[in-house]
Amino acid sequence: MSANLLLGKPVQGALLEEVTAATRAITDAGHRPPHLTAVLVGGDPASAIYVRTKTTKCREVGFGSEGIILPEETTTEELLAIVRRLNGDDKVDGILVQLPLPKHCDTKTVLDAVDPAKDVDCFHPHNTGLLVQGRPRFAPATPAGIIELLERSDIEISGKHAVIIGRSDIVGKPMAMLLLHRHATVTICHSRTPDLAAVCRGADILVAAVGVPGLVTRDFVGPGAVVIDVGINRVADRAQAAEILGDAADWARFEERGYLVVGDVRPDVAEVAAAVTPVPGGVGPLTIGMLLVNTLAAARGRRDIGNAG
Ligand code: GUN
Question: Which of 74, 171, 217, 250 has the most CB atoms less than 10 A away?
Answer without folding.
Answer: 171
